[in-house]
Specification:
Layout (H helix, E strand, L loop, with lengths): L3 E12 L2 E13 L4 E5 L6 H8 L7 E6 L2 E2 L5 H11 E4 L11 H11 L5 H13 L15 H12 L6 E5 L7 H18 L2 E5 L11 E6 L2 E6 L1
Parallel strand pairs: 3-8, 3-9, 6-7, 7-8
Antiparallel strand pairs: 1-2, 1-4, 4-5, 9-10
Helix pairs in contact: 3-4, 3-5, 4-5, 5-6
Bound molecules: adenosine-5'-diphosphate and magnesium ion.
The site of adenosine-5'-diphosphate has 11 residues, from strand 2 and helix 1.
Length: 226
């Protein structure tokens, strides 16, 4: 069963007396355990595609299917529940809460879905260890490097065992060595956790670490590899 399918998605924004077509009949699939890179120039629709896949933006037409189940046409409440329970997000900035330790960032994300207790805490520690932060669990964001903060964000995005991981330019604020480490980590976690990952990136040097690629131009799929 295909994990994520975007089927013939069109998304427009009002733009004065015209409409701007941000996504023009875009289709793609991502399987569990696959990292699909989405590339393209600035303004080509990459973030719009993630917003539609993440139920943050409703498309004008087309379908979003998760494990074969249609997600379009839901109520806001259902969209929020699906987003919290089944989708993890990682953005350019780690967006950590400055007063919380690394461990607490993950516990907070679990609590939003009503999960707490020793088993949840053990899972949080396991994920922090998996991203290489076993010794940093008690540190707050200002005590972590940029790369370490992004690792916390990746662990946090996985804490509710999502089906789908949506990642928007996670390495934009990092140097090239750190960028490669973060993409390699995303690939490893995707394989280990059997999540389907969409990785928006302009960093062509890390594409060898991904499994497949969709290139956008002006809101259209220019090329899809594998
Ligand atoms: P990318 O992430 O590839 O840079 P985006 O998906 O952010 O591209 O944007 C695609 C197009 O949609 C651009 O022309 C952008 O200006 C436009 N756009 C994005 N978000 C909005 C919005 N909320 N309102 C109006 N236009 C938008
Ligand atoms: Mg963008």
């Amino acid at each position: 069963m295909t994990r994520l399918a975007l089927d013939d998605i069109t998304l427009t924004y009002p733009d004065g007396d015209r409409t701007l077509v941000a996504l023009d009949r875009v289709s793609l699939t991502v399987e569990a355990g696959e990292v699909r890179a989405v590339t393209g120039a600035s303004g080509s629709g990459k973030s719009s595609l993630l917003a539609v896949a993440g139920l943050l933006q409703r498309p004008d037409s087309g379908s979003v299917l998760l494990d074969g189940v249609e997600l379009t046409g839901r109520t806001r409440r259902e969209e929020t529940r699906i987003r919290r329970e089944r989708i993890g997000f990682v953005f350019q900035q780690a967006n950590l809460l400055s007063s919380l330790t690394a461990l607490e960032q993950l516990q907070m994300a679990a609590r939003i879905t009503g999960r707490r207790g020793p088993a949840v805490d053990a899972r949080c520690r396991e994920l922090l260890a998996a991203v290489g932060l076993e010794r940093e669990t008690a540190r707050r964001p200002h005590q972590l490097s940029g790369g370490q903060r992004q690792r916390v964000a990746i662990a946090r995005a996985l804490v509710n065992d999502p089906a789908l991981l949506l990642v928007d330019e996670p390495t934009a604020a990092l140097d090239s060595a750190r960028s490669r480490d973060v993409v390699a980590l995303l690939a490893r976690m995707t394989h280990e956790e059997q999540v389907a990952t969409v990785l928006v990136t302009h960093d062509l040097d890390t594409l060898d670490l991904t499994d497949s690629r969709t290139e956008l131009a002006d809101g259209r799929v220019l090329a899809a590899l594998a």
